[in-house]
Amino acid sequence: MNTEGLALSILLKNITKTFGSIVKTNVLQDINIKISDNQFISVLGPSGSGKSTLLSLIGTIETPSSGTILINDIDTIELNLDEIADLRYENFGFVFQQYHLIDSLTALENVIIPTLTRKVEYEREKNAFELLELVGLKDQKDLYPFQLSGGQQQRVAIARALITKPKWILADEPTGNLDSKNGELIFNLLKKIQQEENCGIIMVTHDTTLAERTDQIIEMNDGRIQLVRRGKNGSLPITHI
Ligand SMILES: Nc1ncnc2c1ncn2[C@@H]1O[C@H](COP(=O)(O)OP(=O)(O)OP(=O)(O)O)[C@@H](O)[C@H]1O
């Protein structure tokens, strides 16, 4: 595999994930993957194949049962909980199928939320407003989630994921609750973010047509990576090792 010239930021080596102590369920096995910076990657596979678990492991929300995860050459196993939280904050923004906005806060306030426990060098409100502008919602900044459509709520959630200036957006079925028009809009927004904000995207999806439009597709089945292949326009190195 030729990854010369590309910064490698995520490496998963010999990963397994088992849930349960008495009744054990092997959810992921033999996961070996290298991901270079700033790619748009989709994860496809049947329900229960382990896509969300893989995303949670990459985002350091879950820990592997065995194997190694390196993020920017840092072995996550070596880190304590505070260090993991810092690494997660600096590298990952999360977007979910259900938007998980706080009902009692405005769009702008929802975007600011992830920064509140942190010291930041930028002006929170100004930055949040600029991100709402980026996702096309500056005029809706003072609206509450119930006043926004599903697609608009997902755009707020994407702005919220970007406020920490992450290196990666990890999106778990971001278009899963949306009709095809809004799904297309969210996909195009993620593509724009990849291109303009210098941010990689890893997106779990059931939508094969959208997946084909990403740089690389990781196909999963039964807890294993079956295939890693380029999307239709992808020209980047394959990441399966
Ligand atoms: N915390 C947990 N405890 C026990 N089993 C779990 C846990 N999380 C996931 N699983 C099991 O792991 C398997 C993979 O789940 P996962 O959500 O990763 O699959 P998925 O491919 O994302 O599925 P879907 O497309 O339906 O969201 C499933 O059988 C699920 O029941």
Describe what you observe in this structure.
The protein has 241 residues and is of the alpha/beta class. It contains 7 helices and 10 strands. The chain has a domain at 39-61 and 90-230: P-loop containing nucleotide triphosphate hydrolases (Rossmann fold). It has helices at residues 51-58, 81-91, 107-112, 124-134, 150-162, 180-196, 208-212; strands at residues 8-19, 25-36, 40-44, 66-71, 74-75, 92-95, 168-172, 200-204, 216-221, 224-230. The strands form 2 sheets. Strands 6-7-8-3-9-10 form a 6-stranded mixed β-sheet, with helices on both faces. The protein has a 4-stranded antiparallel β-sheet with strand order 2-1-4-5, with helices on one face. 39% of the residues are buried. Residues 19-20, 25, 27, 45, 47-53 line the site of adenosine-5'-triphosphate. Keywords: ATP-binding, Lipoprotein, Nucleotide-binding, Plasmid, Transport. GO terms for molecular function: ATP binding; ATP hydrolysis activity; transmembrane transporter activity. Residues 10-241 form the ABC transporter domain. This is Lipoprotein-releasing system ATP-binding protein LolD.
Kindly list the characteristics that best describe this protein.
binds adenosine-5'-triphosphate; 7 helices; Rossmann fold; alpha/beta; globular; six-stranded mixed β-sheet; ABC_transporter-like_ATP-bd; nucleotide-binding; 241 residues; transport; 29% helix; ABC_transporter-like_CS
